[in-house]
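REVIEWER CHECKLIST
Item 1: Sequence provided? yes
Item 2: Single chain? yes
Item 3: Sequence as submitted:
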Amino acid sequence: MKPLKIIFLLSFTCFLCFFSCTTVDVYERSLPVPGHAWYNSFRPTFDFTIKDTSSPYQPLLILRHNEKYHYSNIYVNISIEKPGQDSAQKFQLDLPLAGKDGKWLATGMDDIYEHRIGLFERPQYLKAGHYKFTVEQIMRENPLQNVYDVGIRVEKQ
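Item 4: Structure as written out by the authors:
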């Protein structure tokens, strides 16, 4: 019985060491796209609060679509309301969804693919306070077909 306890403790210690070096989710929320057709008038918003300012954070766009999605990228406008600012910061991104070989740059199950794409080149130190992200698709196709969910995830690095 004693060797079994030792093996269990060693396994548990390895498990803790492995997962203690990963990122920590601060926030994650996805909203379903009505009818899997993303109209540019559907602009999901995501609110969260940052308390710890000692570590950098990486906000990610979450996008789920099926294999019939027509494009290898997506153009979006991201609007960010930050604490202590009167106006929102707005920027346009062209985010790749597939490689040059046509394979999706995502995790997939059956015909559903999920992308988690960083919104900044590297993690950012954020001020403490309330944040509000708004996502708007600005593709030429309106509605943008075969999109299931849109979300924001914030990871503490």
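Item 5: Key structural point noted by reviewer: The first strand starts at residue 24 and ends at 32.
Item 6: Recommendation: ____
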